[in-house]
Structure formats: structure tokens, C-alpha cells
Amino acid sequence: MRKKIVAGNWKMNTTVAEGVELAKNIVAKLGEVPNDVNLIIAPPFTHLVSVGNVIKGTKIALSAQNCADEAKGAYTGEVAVSMLKDAGCAYTILGHSERRQYYGETSAKLVNKIKLALESGIKPIFCVGEKLEERNAGNHFKVVGTQLSEVLSEVTAEDMLNIVIAYEPVWAIGTGVTATSAQAQEIHAFIRKFVADKFGAEVAEETVILYGGSCKPSNAKELFACKDIDGGLIGGAALKADDFIGIAISY
Ligand code: PEP
Question: Domain range for residue 33?
């Protein structure tokens, strides 16, 4: 049985106090979430320790939203993955489309980040997804296939078991437009086949593939019912405890 995961990406939102409050509100509602649904929250770097203290001892795991592509040293403004581990993170999001679009995140950088994360015992939540023009041109499989093959080039089958993939069509992120369950399922099946071809059927069967892009309580159930969708990476709706939990209980 594959793990079911609902992960919240808070992006660059909330003060520390607001983040702590949000985490407390999520913890207060944990009793509603089915036992087999795992939760992850990814607050900004500055909130990790404070939010981590709120969720300590609960089933919620802590994630960062990014990490440096170097291990340590003179890289002003960067945060090393070993520091994330030290702050209590179990996961880090990597390759989010906003980082690719605004901060020049390349596949080459992601290869290093994934390697460093795995070496530190941090599980990457590796994001892939096509832009609107790429989908309209019918290139979505090609784009996602290239993102996967470039970044997972040096990963072993054993490593792959510690990587979560998030399919996030860029046209669905923060737009209110969600991929239909059929659109999402066909790409998720494509991603699972990619993993099977590269790492073997058993690894593919274990690989958690999340959907992200305007997922909310009203559409989560239909998406999560799809065979190859193992949960969601949630942006906007993760900023309200009721909505985040509402998505988690949609399983
Ligand atoms: C995201 O940015 O990872 C995301 C899925 O955002 P939203 O849910 O707001 O579309």
C-alpha cells in the first residue's frame, strides 16, 4: 500500500506568530484525519523551529520549501539541507515552478539539491509540471518526461523510495483552475511508468505521486480517487486549517 500524503506549501505567507497559530489550529483538528493519511506542512524557513515545536509528537511532518545546492560555506543567503535537518525537517519541496520561474532553478541545480537532501536524510518532494502553452501545444508529456529524466538521472532505485513526486501543472497553480481528474490521472500514470521503466515496477508501486494546483476541499475527493494520485501538494488552501483538514479528510 502506497503512503497517502497531504502536504501544505505555505509559500511566503504568515508571520511566525500566525504560522504557529495555523499549526495549532491544524493540530487541534487532527482527530478528524483518517489514520492512513499523512500530513506535511512546509512553512517559511524562519518559522521552521517554532512551527516544528507545535507539531512535535503529532503525525504532521515538517518540510522546507527549498534548500541550497551546496552543502555549506560561503553562499550568502542560502540555507543548507543539513540546517533543515537540524531544524527538524523530514522533507523539503524542490523544483517548485515558482522557483523555476522566478529564481532560475535548473535541472542541474536540482540534481545537486536532491543528492544533498538524500545524503542528509531529508526526503525531497520533487515538483514537475508543464506551462499552459506547453499543454496547449500538446507537449505536456514531453516536458514532464524531460524534467524527470534530467533530475533523476543520478538517483538510484533505493534513493527513489525516499523521493515524493508532485505533479503541478503551472496553469493550475494559484489560478483556481484545477486539472480535471482525467488530465491529472493520465500524467500521474505516465510518471509512474517513467519510474517503473527507470527503477523497476516495485519501486514505481511504492512511489508517492501528489497532485498540486488549486486543490481544495470541493475537488480533492475526485482527484484522490484516481488510481495513481496519492494525495496533494496544497498551496492557497493550506493557509486555512479548515480547508487543509477538509482536503485531508477527502480521502
Ligand atoms: C503550489 O504552489 O504548490 C500549489 C499547489 O498552489 P495552489 O494550491 O494555491 O494552486
Answer: 4-248
